[in-house]
Write a structure and sequence with these properties.
Radius of gyration: 18 Å
Structural class: alpha/beta
Order of helices and strands: EHEHHHEHEHEEEHHEH
Strand order of the largest sheet: 2-3-1-4-8
Number of strands: 8
Strand content: 5-15%
Largest sheet: 5 strands, parallel
Helix content: 40-55%
Shape: globular
Distance between the termini: 14 Å
Number of helices: 9
């Protein structure tokens, strides 16, 4: 299956992408992984991207699109793929559409993870990370540490990332609505979009996603 996963920040895209890709036995391709791989390998696109990033500038769409095209031509994508974080805007969606048509393939579906805005703010603004090990993540409501401000795993100090404040989250949501949300309409015109609730336990959301994909195939 060839799938695009979309949804606002805090919808749990990364978690669902990882689980769904494993469930469907297809590679999970995230924008972050594309950048890390190209930069670490020193590819021409990676060098170009790093130049922009080092200056604190946004990486142009054509660079991101080039990385995605290269990745989608790797042998492991022959049976399908799950795109997470790409396309991020209409220009990227249109470029992906042209590229797939050139390859003689098409998307099977676009999964839109829906979460109320207030829930997004609660999820992200309540997140706390360990200063000793960023992989140790807690939440003041959903997964609080045994001792406030202290990591259960190693005793390190817990802190809130500067971009996890409510004000920062609202800015990221505004950016999502203005830049990324329009791709949902683009794919709705192609009758590819299925919207599912991203509320509930991880496994519940995954089951909804799998059911939606199966229904789409049958339809």
């Amino acid at each position: 299956m060839r799938i695009v996963l979309v949804g606002p920040p805090g919808a749990g895209k990364g978690t669902q992408a990882h689980v769904l890709a494993k469930t469907l036995s297809i590679p999970h391709i995230s924008t972050g992984d594309l950048f890390r791989a190209n930069i670490s390998q020193g590819t021409p696109l990676g060098v170009e991207a790093k130049g922009y990033m080092d200056q604190g500038l946004l990486v142009p769409d054509e660079v991101t699109i080039g990385m995605a095209k290269d990745r989608l031509q790797q042998p492991d994508t022959a049976a399908g793929f799950l795109l997470d974080g790409f396309p991020r805007n209409l220009e990227q969606a249109e470029a992906l559409d042209v590229f797939l048509a050139e390859q003689g393939i098409a998307l099977d579906g676009v999964l839109d993870l829906e979460v109320p805005e207030d829930e997004v703010v609660k999820r992200i603004a309540g997140r706390r990370l360990c200063r000793n090990n960023g992989a140790h993540v807690f939440h003041v409501v959903y997964n609080p540490p045994k001792t406030e401000g202290v990591c259960d795993e190693c005793g390190g100090e817990l802190y809130q990332r500067s971009d996890d404040t409510e004000e920062s989250v609202r800015v990221r949501l505004d950016e999502y609505h203005s830049k990324t949300e329009p791709i949902i309409g683009f794919y709705q015109d192609k009758k590819l979009v299925t919207t599912i609730s991203a509320l509930g336990k991880v496994e519940e959301v995954t089951q909804r996603a799998v059911d939606a994909l199966k229904a789409g195939q049958q339809g």
